[in-house]
Model the fold of this input.
Amino acid sequence: MNRVIYFKSRPKGMPDESNFEMVKEQIPEIQDGEVLIKTLYISVDPYMRGRMSDAKSYAEPYKVGEPFKGGIVGKVIESKNDKFQAEQYVEGILNWAEYSVSNGSGIRRIKPEWGPITTSLHVLGMPGLTAYFGLLYIGQPKEGETVVVSGASGAVGTVVGQIAKLKGCRVVGIAGGDDKCAFLTNELGFDAAINYKTVENLRKALKEACPNGVDVYFDNVGGAVSDAVMSRINFQSRTAICGQISQYNLEKPELAPRVAGQLLKTSSLMKGFIVSDYAEHNKEALIQLSQWVREGKIKYRESVVEGFENTVDAFLGLFRGDNIGKQLVKVAEE
Ligand SMILES: NC(=O)c1ccc[n+]([C@@H]2O[C@H](COP(=O)([O-])OP(=O)(O)OC[C@H]3O[C@@H](n4cnc5c(N)ncnc54)[C@H](OP(=O)(O)O)[C@@H]3O)[C@@H](O)[C@H]2O)c1
Done:
């Protein structure tokens, strides 16, 4: 049998288990040109929250009544497609299911000799590319500058901070836990980390952690955390708007300080981006990221939840801050 998770209803505010439904079905049969894939790992990602809403955005909304979809690493079990053979590992956007069928478009082969297959879902996949492009193409960090990253202990943030260190910057992370902050400074080499959930005065803490102000801000979270960082930006600073996770589950927009005056006064740049904007540079970025990982210059951590039936809870955990590093669900043994 094949367990499949369907998208049952659009959430208002924070999603919950009732927005999903797990159904048992027959394992599908494949036609000419198709491959049958056994899911090994599922990636749960904050952007999926956006696709659960029907508001216009860069990614098409999920359709209610269809299987939920996301990044998956799996093994080809059977192939009627010349480009894939049984036993090969693949990565791509597939159904949240123990087995799924693909016509080969949108999946890519991955080789275990490149590194653990799960890395294709984070440091050597979409989140790693996001960090690379946002920091290097928009942030353009220079040696000696100060880089601040919010959502610092997650899949994107951990890579951002480590690339900034490789570029010779002072790196300050903002994350929601003392264990997360210790991980950033002790294991990843960040110069300082601030727990935004317990710090009394975030602006003051930022002033202490960034004595020379902020030259580059990589924003994963938005909201009050970003308001505090924007009050510290330097002349000609660069802010890359990568994510706004603090806003994804709000039912009403937040009232907030207006940043335009601050950007004007400091001749600063603020730019939103989507990882796919830079798709033509994916190959170059992956070659560089994989070299850094092989050389031990970029480290990563995975938070792995076991069992397909726990996929929805692992996704909801992103909004509780359960994960350090990349949140994955292990569905089956390699
Ligand atoms: N632009 C793009 O193309 C692109 C691509 C990938 C990801 N993104 C965005 O980048 C951000 C990070 O993604 P990721 O995959 O690396 O996720 P992640 O950081 O691994 O996981 C989400 C983290 O967000 C933090 N968080 C949750 N609710 C929060 C809140 N209300 N305020 C502040 N922080 C909160 C939690 O950490 P704490 O414990 O620190 O709160 C949680 O662990 C997300 O906003 C995502 O949408 C954008």
Notes: Residues 45-47, 127, 130, 151, 153-157, 175-177, 180, 220-221, 223, 225, 242-243, 245-246, 273-275, 318-319, 321, 323, 327 surround NAP (CB under 6 Å). The first strand starts at residue 2 and ends at 7.
